[in-house]
Structure formats: C-alpha cells, structure tokens
Amino acid sequence: MQYTRENAEKVMAGRKTRTWRPYKDGEYAVRNSADDIMLVRNRKQHIKWIVGRDYAVQPGRGKHAIGRHRITRIRHEQAGAISEADAIAEGFDDVQGFIDSLTALYGEWTPEQPGWALDFELVNGSR
Fold first, then answer.
1. How many domains in the chain?
2. Per-residue pLDDT, 91
3. What is the pLDDT of residues 96-123, one digit of tens each?
C-alpha cells in the first residue's frame, strides 16, 4: 500500500494502525455470514484488499517496500464519522490532523465522503 513518506514512517514505528481510503466508483464489499467485510473488489472484479492478507508498506508510488502489514479489519464509513480514537490510530493527534491530511492528499474534504477504514498490524518491520 502506498503512503506518504511521513505516514509510512508512522506505520513502521507502530504509531499508525489504520488507514482511511476514499471510495472509488464501482468498488464494493464482500461480507461473511456475520456481516463483516472480508474483502473489497473494484469495478473490474479484482480484489483490492482482503482481511488477513499482507501488503507492502511503500513510502510513495513506485518506491521500494520498507515493511509489510496485514489487514485485520475493513469498514465502510464516511470521512466525517472518524472519532478521536480513530484519528490517533491514523497516526494523528486529533481529528483536525486527520482532516488536514485528507485535504492535502485529495484536495478537499467533506464529512459525507464515503471511504474504507482499513485496520492493520505490522508483520515485518525490518528495513
């Protein structure tokens, strides 16, 4: 998964254990019998993320992985639903820091923006 350099460092230091990604047209969740999201597919039916799978931590597009993390949970939520605890899991001091980061990354922020909240654990911290 691609992160800004700063956020990749937070992942590797254990200060970021969740990432929020905006919903893209055509994406959808596949749920298990307990109604938990198990994976997300894109409009071409390719799996985008799956619970239990390991992903590279990349400090930017085309950069070499600096570690690996495993998705432990996926939720569909609006950007404005983030709590203080969620913001801290995102690696920020507060909700405003999260909002500022989304604005910097995506150009704008609206509370209604749907997205995916991905919780993860670091599985390989070696560089």
1. 1
2. 97
3. 999 999 999 988 889 999 999 999 999 9
Query: Would you say 10 and 16 are in contact if contact means Cβ atoms under 8 Å apart?
Result: yes
The CB density around residue 11, as the number of other CB atoms within 10 Å, is 24
Residue 87: give its domain's CATH number.
Answer: 3.10.400.10
pTM above 0.85, yes or no: yes
**What are 117's strand-pairing partners?**
20, 75
How many angstroms separate the CA atoms of 61 and 66, rounded?
Answer: 13
Range of the domain at 82: 5-124
Neighbours of 94 (CB within 10 A): 11
Would you call 75 helix, strand, or coil by DSSP?
Answer: strand
Spatial distance between the Cα atoms of 58 and 77, rounded to a whole number of angstroms: 24
